[in-house]
Amino acid sequence: NRKIVLASRPVGAPVAEDFCLQQTAVPTITEGEVLLRSVYLSLDPYMRGRMSDAKSYAEPVALGEVMVGGTVCQVEQSNHADYQQGEWVLSYSGWQDYAISNGEGLLKLGMHPTHPSYALGVMGMPGFTAYMGLLDIGKPQQGDTIVVAAATGAVGSMVGQIGKIKGCRVVGVAGGEQKCRYAKEVLGFDDCIDHKANDFAEKLAEACEQGIDVYYENVGGKVFDAVLPLLNTGARIPLCGLISQYNATELPQGPDRMSMLMGTLLVKRIKMQGFIIFDDYADRYDEFAADMSQWLAEGKIHYREDLVQGLENAPQAFIGLLDGKNFGKLVIQTNSA
Ligand code: NDP
Question: What is the value of ipTM here, to two decimals?
Answer without folding.
Answer: 0.99
